[in-house]
Design brief:
Blueprint: E1 3-14, E2 22-31, E3 40-47, E4 59-69, E5 75-82, E6 87-95, E7 100-105, E8 116-121, E9 126-127, E10 133-139, E11 146-156, E12 159-167, E13 182-183, E14 188-189, E15 195-202, E16 213-220, E17 226-230, E18 235-236, E19 240-250, E20 256-262, E21 283-287, E22 294-298, E23 313-321, E24 327-338, E25 341-350, E26 353-358, E27 370-372, E28 380-382, E29 388-394, E30 399-405, E31 408-414, E32 418-419, E33 423-427, E34 440-442, E35 448-454, E36 459-466, E37 483-486, H1 493-501, E38 512-513, E39 531-532, E40 544-545, E41 556-560
Parallel strand pairs: 1-41
Antiparallel strand pairs: 1-2, 1-40, 3-36, 4-5, 5-6, 6-7, 8-10, 9-10, 10-11, 11-12, 13-15, 14-15, 15-16, 16-17, 18-19, 19-20, 20-21, 21-22, 23-24, 24-25, 25-26, 27-29, 28-29, 29-30, 30-31, 32-33, 33-35, 34-35, 35-36, 37-41, 38-39
Length: 572
């Protein structure tokens, strides 16, 4: 697919508040290749085949599983390793903003006893704003059901040498009775260093009743004191009983979201059965810290609110909570289909109102309609601003990473995008499950961490930083370099420009201006930026343009509106 860009060649004029007009030169030129002209700058934190840190050596292989990305730009991730004889299993690594450090890897002695095993991390791994980290990791020998004979470990303030055991399988007493037999996927840390996790414990109810095992949610505070959040046999809302729980998260206020199943509901195993798995698809709950009460947020078989598009939840899972109490969760949609069964969707609950972030049939920025988000927790993220990053499969067969902010979607990266110095993105399904599986995380500065498969068989762990900002910075509202839009052949220049800008949320030509200084202000320090103003901005000038070249051969092109480089005082 070809793209167009605007280069020096055609004059664009606009009035300004002071006496003289501003001008910039633009020309539309067709590109032979689809280069990535994006609102983000991309950095490869690691690539497949790259030497891995740690005394054991070897290289990264197979895939990357990004964990959390904090506001300081530190990131934790899991990767498979090849030490010369093929894939030996996984290790966990920390990016500190400058380079990579090994936290642990397969074959090392685990704190509290045992040896880290080949199954690896029950990712995504946890990291908070204090650079404290937490990892659930399997031990040798690998034992079914998945989650058995795995431990939970944490370290403080980026000091990986402080790694210690929180749960040692077969050793650590579980709150509420019995001994932990393992830990599960998706441990989560808040900024008070409270750690919530899935623990495998003895039980006589639930999907593992026949082998005497089940899963519940537990918390370790900053001093490693353990408590139970919910475990099989506990009371559930509506006079029901929990028999299974997993995938917790915790916000700064101590509210805990989790996925759980109750005895009154049918067990939808989705093909995940004993002896391999302990599993029943369930519903979303939150335990509020101020009251200790557990509230049902989205329940298996319940209608989806009209505000979120209607329909029925087949099941709901893996909620994330931010500091404002906003809840993001995923759900399978009854009566839909995708490569793995139900189409998966994302929903956001704010102030008691549920809206759809992404669901099947939705037109997506950059082209295509959504087939499904993913069923794997860790492939969507919520920050404290209420923004959401996620990946999705499109009806074109392409996959993309997207940002949902203030009710609008924008494209971050997509199959076919070229990452300079890295390669061309093939998809975001490094694990090969049929839906995006390469994980996504978003910090409060708008940076997005994700894994990507590259054409030719490579892969990379990528950090997307909003254009014009340093690490951890926030993108100015409306600043746009990649503006996906339709290019109607034969349209007038002004209509052409408006069409190109609509992908960035610009509705009329009056919504566009160049950066400008007031009569008593200096000129902008970055006169090369094109700014797309909010419709409520004051004193918006009009912009008119002539187009010298509009050669097209297809109705759909991504546009980049770029100020010309090399001009002598372009605001003159």
């Amino acid at each position: 697919m070809r793209s167009l860009r605007l280069l020096p060649g055609t004059w664009v004029r606009q009035p300004r508040q002071i006496q003289r007009p501003r001008r910039a030169v633009l020309r539309v030129e067709q590109l032979e290749d689809r280069a990535l002209l994006s609102r983000y700058a991309f950095t490869a934190l690691a690539e497949l085949g790259q030497p891995a840190p740690g005394p054991e050596g070897g290289v990264f292989t197979f895939d990357f599983e990004p964990g959390h990305l904090n506001n300081g730009g530190q990131a934790i991730f899991t990767a498979d390793l090849d030490q010369g004889a093929g894939d030996i299993g996984e290790g966990v690594f920390l990016f500190d903003g400058k380079g990579l450090t090994q936290v642990l890897r397969v074959g090392e002695t685990a704190p509290g006893g045992g040896t880290f095993g080949g199954f690896g991390s029950f990712s995504p791994d946890a990291l908070n704003q204090n650079n404290d980290g937490a990892i659930a990791f399997g031990l040798n020998p690998f034992t079914f059901p998945i989650g058995a004979n795995s431990g939970l470990y944490r370290y403080d303030h980026g000091m990986v040498a402080s790694l210690r055991a929180i749960v040692v399988p077969g050793v650590t007493p579980a709150p509420g009775g019995g001994i932990f037999q393992g830990a599960g996927f998706h441990p989560y840390l808040n900024n008070r260093s409270d750690l919530v996790f899935t623990g495998t414990v003895p039980t006589t109810i639930g999907p593992g009743a026949s082998i005497g095992l089940g899963q519940g949610i537990f918390k370790a505070d900053s001093h490693d004191n353990l408590s139970s959040v919910v475990r099989p046999g506990d009371s559930a809302p509506g006079g029901n009983t929990f028999d299974y729980a997993e995938n917790p998260s915790i916000n700064a206020g101590g509210d805990i979201g989790f996925e759980a199943h109750i005895t009154a509901d049918p067990c939808l195993d989705l093909g995940h059965t004993l002896p391999t798995f302990l599993f029943c698809a369930g519903s979303v709950y939150v335990r509020y810290a101020n009251t200790g009460s557990i509230v049902s947020i989205a329940h298996q078989g319940d209608p989806i609110p009209a505000s979120a598009g209607g329909g029925t939840y087949d099941y709901a899972y893996s909620p994330l909570l931010n500091g404002s109490g906003t809840i993001l969760f995923a759900a399978g949609l009854q009566g839909t289909s995708s490569p793995i069964g139900d189409s998966q969707a994302l929903f956001l609950v704010t102030g008691g109102t549920t809206v759809a972030v992404a669901r099947q049939g939705q037109a997506m920025p950059g082209g295509g309609t959504l087939v499904s988000t993913t069923i794997t927790p860790g492939n969507y993220s919520l920050n404290d601003k209420g923004d959401v990053a996620f990946n999705a499969l499109l009806d074109t067969g392409e996959e993309g990473v997207y940002l949902y902010s203030k009710g609008a979607l924008s494209l971050v990266a997509k199959s076919g995008d070229v990452i300079p110095g890295v390669g061309t993105i093939a998809n975001f399904d490094m694990a090969g499950v049929g839906l995006p599986s390469s994980f996504v995380d978003l910090n409060d500065g708008g940076e997005i961490l994700f894994g990507a498969s590259l054409t030719g068989g490579g892969g990379a762990l990528l950090l997307a930083t909003p254009t014009g900002q340093g690490a951890g910075g926030a993108r100015a509202d409306g600043q746009a370099a990649l503006l996906p839009a339709q290019l109607p052949v034969g349209t007038a220049p002004n209509a052409l420009l408006v069409s190109a800008l609509q992908g960035a949320g610009v509705q009329t030509i009056a919504d566009v201006s160049t950066p400008r200084a007031g009569a008593d202000q200096p000129a902008p320090s970055h006169p090369g930026d094109l700014t797309v103003h909010d419709v409520n901005s004051l004193a918006l000038p009009t912009l008119s343009a002539g187009v010298q070249e509009t050669e097209t051969s297809a109705p759909d092109y991504p546009f980049a509106a770029l100020w010309a480089s090399g001009l002598d005082d372009p605001l003159r």
